[in-house]
Amino acid sequence: MHLHRYEKIWLTVGILTLAAFVIVAGINAFAMGAMPPSDRQMIDPTKVDQTPPFNQPGLKKIGPNEYDATMTAFVFGFAPATIEVPVGSTVHFRVTSKDVVHGFQIVGTNVNMMVVPGLVNTASHTFTKPGNYLILCNEYCGAGHQLMAAHVVVK
Ligand code: CUA
Hints:
Elements: H1 5-31, E1 41-42, E2 58-63, E3 66-74, E4 77-79, E5 82-85, E6 89-97, E7 102-106, E8 112-115, E9 119-127, E10 131-136, E11 149-154
Parallel strand pairs: 3-6, 5-11
Antiparallel strand pairs: 1-9, 2-3, 3-4, 6-9, 7-8, 7-10, 10-11
The chain binds dinuclear copper ion.
């Protein structure tokens, strides 16, 4: 079989790129312990209301400009429905579901996660601009899916 010189060059580039990707992903996973975007904390989804901290969903100040937001997702809403923080605040969201799989996306930020019953998912964001940030569910979860929303008010 005859391979054109350019074909050989591109094949080499392609194979090297693939090898580099596998090596980087391998180092990340095995040497640096990178995990999927879930902290793997488990919870009994039928006892969310009795399990701290989800028995008291809400906002807690943990430092200057730093907050913990403990939230639950359910058909069809989030608790709490509104969170208010000052501009420049870093908010650590901790979310779990009380029933089915939901989504947790904060429009205009990089926060976008699945909320799976039985698992606790976390994400942090620093709100540098004032505004009303929409939190929405982006996993179809039933007849009221489109009504499922909450807000982060940044003043
Ligand atoms: Cu919850 Cu869609």
